[in-house]
Design brief:
CATH architecture of chain B: Sandwich
Number of helices of chain A: 1
Largest interface: A-B, 30 and 32 residues
Oligomer: heterodimer
Radius of gyration of chain B: 19 Å
CATH superfamily of chain B: q2cbj1_9rhob like domain
Largest sheet of chain A: 4 strands, antiparallel
Structural class of chain B: alpha+beta
Strand content of chain B: 15-25%
CATH topology of chain B: Jelly Rolls
Strand content of chain A: 25-35%
CATH class of chain B: Mainly Beta
Number of helices of chain B: 9
Shape of chain B: globular
Shape of chain A: elongated
Order of helices and strands of chain B: HEHEHHHEEEEEEEEHHHH
Structural class of chain A: mainly beta
Chain lengths: 98, 268
């Protein structure tokens, strides 16, 4: 089977690659086209992006710093930064929708 | 009014956006409510007084008028709330769910205001049954409904596991979603959303309002805040100042002073 791209996104409160992620998501095309059963995970898969890099993941995007203004500098919304990691894995047959 | 929540509970609601109360609805009434949920119909008159709108002479009518439930409602949205909407959320037996993180309705920027949602679990709800998950403390982060679906996992996420008769009450801006049900049993969660009609100030039991524990509760770390904890804390303090009617309240390093202390403006 060919190798295809898996993506791991670490959502962070700083763009640094050595910070603990607040949230995370997997887009593993090697396994299928979406998660049909989300198994809860209490802890991130890696303590930070650098630990993922040491496990073979390649950083394909890291965030820029934001310019803050008085108007929005205290506002909260989605997590402000993310690190996108990539790894190629052998494609598996996708399970049929039940 | 009896059964008002304490100031410490109100502080926890301010910091975490939700509270959990077991033993709110007696078991027999839970069974009767479950039967009614199986025949749930659509919304009632949105935006009309709850007391006039909510059915009487039904099990669900009785459940949401129990003295303990009325005390909880009064504590958070005050007297004479409005009915917003309700729904019997069902995850059928052996139904899996993918990522589902969302904030309800549409983005809501109203200051010094919050709606509540009561989530009533009529049967014992185990982890395997997929009780609703919540992200504690996320209610100050306005987002557009389902755009946060990409946050598949968040540190500090909690999910409902509880005995029959439990009610979770939460600020409607808390990020939440449904989970997989791996059991042979259908999983129901009955939700009711209410709006206040008056300013939400000191509607709870204020006899413990000076308890120093409140400052520690407001400073709670839920696990996901990271470098933004102090910005979360500022939002919590602003809301606590409002609901407790203490306009100068602050804790620790008093971060709100960085905006408020401006002698140069007085001199000018």
């Amino acid at each position: 089977m060919p190798k295809v791209q898996d993506i791991l996104v670490l959502f962070q409160t700083s763009p640094a690659l050595d910070v603990v992620p607040s949230a995370w998501a997997r887009y593993e095309a090697s396994k299928g086209t979406g998660i049909k059963d989300l198994i809860e995970e209490r802890n991130p898969p890696y303590k930070n992006a650098m630990a993922a890099m040491r496990d073979g993941w390649q950083v394909i995007q890291m965030s820029e710093y934001h310019q803050r203004s008085e108007a929005d500098g205290y506002e909260l919304g989605p997590f402000p930064y993310q690190t996108v990691l990539s790894r190629f894995r052998e494609m598996q047959t996708e399970e049929e929708d039940s | 009014m009896k059964h008002l929540i304490s100031s410490q509970d109100m502080a926890q609601f301010t910091a975490s956006g939700y509270l959990k109360y077991e033993d709110m609805v007696p078991k027999d009434l839970c069974k009767a409510c479950l039967k009614e949920m199986e025949n749930n119909k659509g919304y009632l008159a949105v935006g009309m007084p709850f007391e006039e709108t909510w059915p009487k002479d039904t099990a669900l009518g009785e459940a949401f008028r129990l003295p303990k439930v009325k005390g909880l409602i009064q504590s958070l949205v005050g007297p004479d709330p409005l009915y917003d909407h309700h729904a019997a959320h069902l995850v059928k037996a052996h139904t899996t769910r993918g990522p589902d993180m969302h904030q309800d309705s549409v983005i809501d920027f109203r200051q010094n205001y919050f709606d509540i949602q009561l989530s009533f679990f009529p049967v014992d709800t185990t982890d395997e049954m997929g009780g609703t998950f919540l992200v504690p403390g996320s209610h100050f982060r306005n987002v557009r409904t389902g755009e946060i679906r990409g946050y598949q996992h968040i540190t500090g996420k909690v999910w409902a596991t509880c005995p029959a008769g439990t009610i979770y009450v939460w600020n409607t801006r808390v990020w939440h979603g449904a989970r997989s049900n791996y059991t042979d049993q259908d999983r129901y969660m009955y939700k009711l959303r209410l709006n206040p009609t008056k300013p939400q100030i000191r509607n709870f039991d204020t006899s413990d309002i000076d308890n120093p524990e409140i400052g520690r509760i407001l400073s709670t770390h839920h696990g996901w805040e990271g470098h933004e904890h102090r910005y979360e804390l500022m939002k919590r303090i602003e809301l606590w100042r409002y609901v407790s009617d203490q306009p100068d309240y602050d804790v620790g390093e008093r971060f709100l002073r960085r905006r408020e202390y401006q002698p140069q403006r007085i001199m000018a």
